[in-house]
């Protein structure tokens, strides 16, 4: 299973490209759109931290535990890749099962409600289930990140449980982590729901 092979995934609203240091400036501008690093319940890098975050994700790719992407909106004028709006990844990769988590995701504030998030999830879930053959795909988020929890639930993922005092946030506070998953037999229904959402006019 070539799970760690960098790949470009193209949808209706977004293109997911393999993360590269060349994306640095675009990612900085995307993070500045809404000053996302100031949201205490997320882990969006500040502009001065972006280079280190790119390096960190690429190191995890080299170790076999992450496959990171840069998210671009599709330019409606050309139909090709447009501006950078954020990042996402396959992470905590278990190549033997195989199983992946979709996470470390953030998008510029102006891209919210643009269709970018469900389109990105459709691309990643389709690749995981239909190409990689995963029996399950996982999502994790902060207990207090209600926006993220609602978005995951809307995908059709089911809550597996809560890991209490699971990790420490950047400020040192202990975080409770909510774990969700979609199983292979649930994927057709989830796919249909996502495709229906994306078919509606924006």
UniProtKB/TrEMBL annotation:
This is RimJ/RimL family protein N-acetyltransferase. SUPFAM superfamilies: Acyl-CoA N-acyltransferases (Nat). Residues 15-158 form the N-acetyltransferase domain. It comes from Arthrobacter ginsengisoli. Pfam families: Acetyltransf_3 (PF13302). It comes from the Bacteria. The lineage of its organism: Bacteria, Bacillati, Actinomycetota, Actinomycetes, Micrococcales.
């Amino acid at each position: 299973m070539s799970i760690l092979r960098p790949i470009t995934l193209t949808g209706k609203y977004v293109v997911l490209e393999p993360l590269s240091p060349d994306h640095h400036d675009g990612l900085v501008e995307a993070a500045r759109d809404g000053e996302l690093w100031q949201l205490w319940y997320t882990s969006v890098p500040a502009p001065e931290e972006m280079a280190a975050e790119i390096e960190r994700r690429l190191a995890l790719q080299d170790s076999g535990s992450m496959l990171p992407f840069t998210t671009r909106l599709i330019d409606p004028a050309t139909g090709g890749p447009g501006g950078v709006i954020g990042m996402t990844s396959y992470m905590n990769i278990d190549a033997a099962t195989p199983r992946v988590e979709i996470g470390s995701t953030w998008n510029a504030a102006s891209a919210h409600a643009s269709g970018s998030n469900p389109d990105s999830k459709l691309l990643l879930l389709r690749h995981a289930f239909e190409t990689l053959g995963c029996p399950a795909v996982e999502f994790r988020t902060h207990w207090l990140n209600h926006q993220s929890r609602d978005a995951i639930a809307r995908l059709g993922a089911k809550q597996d449980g809560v890991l209490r005092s699971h990790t420490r946030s950047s400020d040192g506070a202990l975080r409770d982590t909510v774990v969700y998953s979609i199983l292979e037999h649930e994927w057709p229904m989830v796919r249909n729901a996502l495709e229906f959402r994306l078919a509606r006019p924006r």
